[in-house]
Design brief:
The chain has a single domain, classed as Aldolase class I (TIM Barrel), CATH 3.20.20.70. It contains 6 helices and 8 strands; from the N terminus they run E-H-E-H-E-H-E-E-H-E-H-E-H-E. It has an 8-stranded parallel β-barrel with strand order 1-2-3-4-5-6-7-8, surrounded by 4 helices. Helix 6 links the parallel strand 7 and strand 8.
Length: 176
């Protein structure tokens, strides 16, 4: 696993709701985006098969591909990095929702942070959101690149990036 420089500023975050729309969405992404592959509920063989399909498209399109899970699995599956808790060398991203989680990710040598939820999102209905000012306050508390998640689209991404986000990611925004 080797870090891609520079890190992508736009990310597709996968989940099971994307269904048959996922592979076409990956193929439509602008060249050089990031993909955070999750699909936690799939069985091991089905998850790996889908990951390999995504990886094939990602390689052709110059995308950086992170696998949610362990560093060992990311290495075994040929991901560019891994997403989750824990420590380990290589490109490592972590999800954070507050300052305590941000500091824990920094101590775990994360390379990039996915900070959420910036706005209301279908993924976490009813969750308390950070809003633009709350997001900005947290994003400026770290030297790590911060990717904004949660109800983000291209218009909101511009506002968030003007206030400290390195980039943005979405589950649904890339599907249409």
């Amino acid at each position: 696993m080797a870090a891609c420089q520079p890190l992508p500023r736009a990310w597709l975050v996968t989940d099971e709701r994307q269904g048959d729309r996922l592979l076409p969405a990956v193929a439509r992404l602008p060249f050089g985006c990031g993909i955070l592959f999750r699909h936690y509920s799939l069985g091991h063989a089905e998850r790996r098969a889908l990951f390999l399909d995504i990886r094939a498209v990602a390689r052709r399109r110059g995308h950086l591909l992170l696998l949610a899970g362990s560093r060992a699995r990311a290495l075994a599956w040929g991901a560019d990095g891994w997403h989750g808790r824990g420590r380990g060398a290589g490109l490592h991203s972590a999800s954070v929702h507050d300052l305590a989680e941000m500091r824990a990710a920094e101590r775990a040598d994360a390379s990039i942070l996915f900070l959420s939820p910036a706005y209301p999102t279908r993924s976490h209905p009813g969750a308390i959101t950070l809003g633009l000012s709350g997001f900005a306050r947290l994003a400026r508390r770290t030297d790590l690149p911060v990717i904004a998640l949660g109800g983000v689209d291209t218009a909101r991404a511009r506002s968030l990036m003007a206030r400290g986000a390195y980039g943005w990611g979405a589950v649904d925004a890339w599907l249409s």
